[in-house]
Known about the structure:
The protein is α+β, with helices and mostly antiparallel strands. 47% of the residues lie in helices and 19% in strands. The strands form 8 sheets. A 3-stranded antiparallel beta sheet has the order 1-15-2, covered by helices on one side. Strands 16-17-18 form a 3-stranded antiparallel beta sheet. The chain is rod-shaped. It comes from Adineta ricciae.
Amino acid sequence: MVHLYKLIRLLLKSLVELNIFNKYSRDERTQKNGRLSTKLYFLILILCLFIFGIYLSLEKQTRTKLILNPTKIQYETLQNESFDEFQCPCNHISVKYGDFLQFHPTYHQLCSSVFASNLWYNAYEVWNITNSCYYPSFQNLASFYFSLLLTFCQSANETVSNSLTQFYALEYITSNVIQEIQFNYEIMSLIESFQVQLQNSFRQQWNLLQSVLANNQIISVRKTNFVLNGKIVNGTLVPHSYIKQHENCTCGTNLICYETVGFCTPSRRDYIKGMRIGCYMVESLFLSTTECFYDELCIDIIKSYMRISAPIYSKLNILNKTLPSQYKTNESIEKIINNLFIEQWNEFYSYEMYFNQCQPSACSYFISQSPSFISIFTKLIGIYGGLNILLKFFLPNLIYFIRRKKKQQTGISFLLFFHHDNQYILNDVIIPMSILLLLD
Length: 440
C-alpha cells in the first residue's frame, strides 16, 4: 500500500513537472514557462480532440450507391426505401405506346347481326307485299335503314383500327424510370383522353353531315322530308312538291321531326317498336332505338311480312339479351353510334413491359450514415497533427509574452510611491525598507 502511494505521488510529481518545451534549459524561469505551456498544451489539445470527436461522430456522411442493370423487383425494393435523389435513367427515353399498351375492343352485337347486313337490299325478294297504305313504309325503308347501319358499323370499326395504329406509334417519353403508381395514373388518363377524343372526332363527322343536309334542304330520294308529286296539265306533267310532315312537326322547321314507322296494308297496320322515320335516313337511324331488336314479338311481326324463301328470313332473330352490355335493350342508336358501337375497350397495359423497354442501366441514390470508428480516428489524427503544430508554436510564445508583461507591470509598481522613514508604499501596502532589500 505504501509503495502504491509512493508510486502515485511519483506519477503526480512527474505530471506536474512535465515539460515538453525547453526541457533541457537550466534557466528556472524558462523551465517554469515550459511546464505551464505543457499543461495548457495538453488541456487545449484534449479539449479540442474531445469536441471534434463528438462532432465527427454526430455528423452524417452522404454516400452515393450505384446498382447496375437493376431488375424491376430491385427497383421497387429501392423505391420503397425512400432514398434521397433516387434515380434510374432510361437507356431509351422514348417508348412507343404499342410496346406496353394494347386495346382489344369488343363491339355491340348489333354490328355482327343480320340487322347490319346487305340481306335487306333487294326489297322485291324480301317482302311479300307490294302495296302500302302510305309511303314510306318499313318495307320501303328497311334496305336503306339497315345498309346505313352497316355503313356506320364499318366506319366505326375502321376509325378505331386506324386510330389505334396511329396511337401505338406515338411515344411515351421519360428520362428516368417512373414509379408504378405514377405510371398507372398517367396511362389511365392517357387512355381516357384517347377514347374521348376519338369519340368526339367520330361524332363531329356525322354532325357535319347533318348540318349540311339541314342547311341545304336537300331532298331525300326516299321522300322522307319532301314529297314530290305531279299532275298532267294540258298534256304536260307539272311537278309539285311539299315539305313532309311527321305527326305534329314539319321538316321545314324542325330537323328532329319523326314518326313511328311500320307496315300498312288495306287490311292490317303494324308499327315497329323503336323504329322511326325522320327527315333524313341518318336522322331516322339516330332517332330510333334497339327495342325491336330484342323483342321476339316485334321480330315476328317483321317476318310475317317477309317471303319465307328470302335468305334473311331464317337468319332474322332477336339479339341475345344475356350478353353483357353497357347499353339498355331500348338504347338510342345515336348513343351507340357516338360510342363507336364499342361495348368494352379491354385495354391492357404493363408496367413491367414499360420498364423493360426503358432498360435502365443503373440506379443511383444517396444514403446518410454515421461515420465508422476508423473514419473518425483517421480524421482526429489529422486534426491532432494540425493542433500539435499550432499549439507548440503559439503556446510558448504566448506564455512568455504574458509573463513578461506581468513582470513589467510588477517592476513599475515598486517605483510608484516613495514614503519617508525608510518605507515604501506598494499598492496601498506599507513595506519596510528591509523587506525590499531582501527582494532585491
